[in-house]
Amino acid sequence: MKSLDALRIGIFDNSKWNASKLLRAVMSRVERDAPDVRFTRYTKESFSRLAPDDLLDRVAAENDVVISAIGD
Question: How buried is 23 (Cβ within 10 angstroms: 0-12 exposed, 13-18 middle, 19+ buried)?
């Protein structure tokens, strides 16, 4: 990947306590360097459960790359 221009980035929050905070910081940094990227946020119902297959399929279909974090 040579450029972030118009890249579709999925932000996948696993619902752990600090995951959202970490992901917001990552988004802020990426936006500063590549203002044309498009973010879509997704959140698991619970960090202790697997993400449903339909959610994972949607995340994969709607994005070029996905960033996830474990925020313990």
Answer: buried
